[in-house]
Amino acid sequence: MLTFNIGSFVISLSHLLLIGALLVATLIGRRVAKEGKGRLDSVLFWLLILGLLVARAGFVLVYREHYGTDLWRMIDVRDGGFLVLPGIIAGVFGALILGWKIATLRRPLAASVVSGLLLWGLGTLSLSVYEQGTRLPDIPVRTSTGETVQLTHYQGRPLVINLWATWCPPCRREMPVLQKAQAAHPDVNFLFVNQGEGSDIVNTFLSSQNLSLNNILYDGGGRLGQVVGSMALPTTLFYSADGRLISSHLGELSDASLARALEQFEGR
Questions:
Q1: Nearest to 33 by CA among 118, 95, 105
Q2: In the predicted structure, residue 221 carries a pLDDT above the cut 80
Q3: What is the mean pLDDT of residues 126-137?
């Protein structure tokens, strides 16, 4: 399961976990604090913002070749590009400075940071273990010629499966990125599994955008999304050559975030 759904509202489990960790950290900190509870809430919020900013800056710095001088792409966090470790270090360092300067915040701030990081870390580890225990679903899809094949037919090389639809704006924006990666990585199988649309609609879209993609597949009932537990589009799944799920990405991919994801295949 990759997303949590309530009606039409969809949120990724990783985002839900981050919100939950912040909430738990706030509640525990307020319970420990004897005074300044409102101030503690504000401090925790800004420490989170600091951590996210540093995590984003670290990612952009490491993958700067994919951003060039495009400032908008650097600040556009929709690609999910963050480096966790620098963000955690920045947040903890900020908490240490504030605790040193403001004595009344030391105990509640320490309790908040430790409990929040512990919950987030254990939750992230659990999600990762669960995700990596998932296998490539053996479900039927249709090819562009109308032939029915099993997804496992494409197993044997590293596999990238993109769930998409032509009506989905982030899906449309990331298609050129995926096309470029497909051409640059012939050792990786890229599958573009359309959710719920017909070949006429897809072909018209591809032609209008001058896109040339291999392995366009059709999942008319959206069964793949249901099986992998993601009701969000686009969703991109990364499988090892033996069909084991390595990771997933919910939302739009950029050149940088896709490059980072493809690094997982190195040495496998």
A1: 105
A2: yes
A3: 83
- Structure-derived torsion over alpha carbons of residues 144, 147, 152, 156, reported in degrees to the nearest 10: -70
Q: List the structure tokens of 194.
A: 């359309």
Go through the chain and tell me how many residues it has: 268
pLDDT score for 268: 61
Domains and CATH numbers, the chain: 11-132 (no CATH), 140-265 (3.40.30.10)
Backbone angles phi, psi at 33, to 5 degrees: -70, 140
Q: Are the C-beta atoms of 113 and 92 separated by less than 8 Å? A: yes
Dist CA 187 CA 140 (whole Å): 23
Rounded Cα–Cα distance for residues 227 and 236 (Å): 14
Amino acid symbol at 61? L
Task: Please answer whether residues 4 and 16 qualify as being in contact, where contact means their C-beta atoms are separated by less than 8 angstroms.
Answer: yes
